[in-house]
Specification:
The relative contact order is 0.23. The protein folds into two domains: about 1-45 and about 95-130, Vaccinia Virus protein VP39 (Rossmann fold), CATH 3.40.50.150; about 45-90. About 20% of the residues lie in helices and about 40% in strands. It is an alpha+beta fold and about 130 residues long. The strands form two sheets. The chain has a four-stranded mixed beta sheet with strand order 1-2-8-7, with helices on one face. It is globular, with a radius of gyration of 16 Å.
Length: about 130
């Protein structure tokens, strides 16, 4: 099994996304799978928002602003009991069709959407067929 978490599939740079997915495809066994974490459908519209983790971390998405070519600049704040960390990163929203096309370009296909909001996906090599 290969894991591509932290919404990395949404990188603002299409070449980086292709490289990440090709790397996943190279490392997954022929009968294995790649678990991919995607942004939810409202990741760039339901802003600002906040989530409190049971560990004590509070995650805030403060803004998501278009910066051109379909890419957004996202500002996040992570509040821990002993400090606050902020981060700004680029993210490209992907429709289900765009996501599945990106997988196909790397020789992968969706085997299953694992959560109701489609944020976790199990992908398999395109040639893999379940027994």
């Amino acid at each position: 099994m290969v894991l591509l978490g932290s919404f990395l599939v949404h990188t603002g740079d299409a070449e980086v996304r292709r490289g990440l997915l090709r790397t996943c495809a190279r490392h997954v066994a022929a009968d294995g799978c790649v678990l991919i974490q995607r942004e939810g459908p409202t990741a760039h519209t339901d802003v600002p928002r906040e989530r409190v983790d049971p560990s004590g971390l509070t995650l805030r998405i403060l803004s998501s602003e278009p910066v051109g070519d379909g890419v957004h600049s996202v500002r996040a704040e992570y509040e821990f009991p002993d400090g606050v960390w902020t981060q700004t990163f680029r993210s490209r929203p992907l429709s289900t069709e765009e996501f599945e096309e990106a997988l196909a370009g790397a020789g992968l296909r969706v085997d299953a959407y694992l959560t109701g909001d489609h944020t976790w996906v199990r992908a398999v090599p395109s040639a893999w067929k379940p027994a």
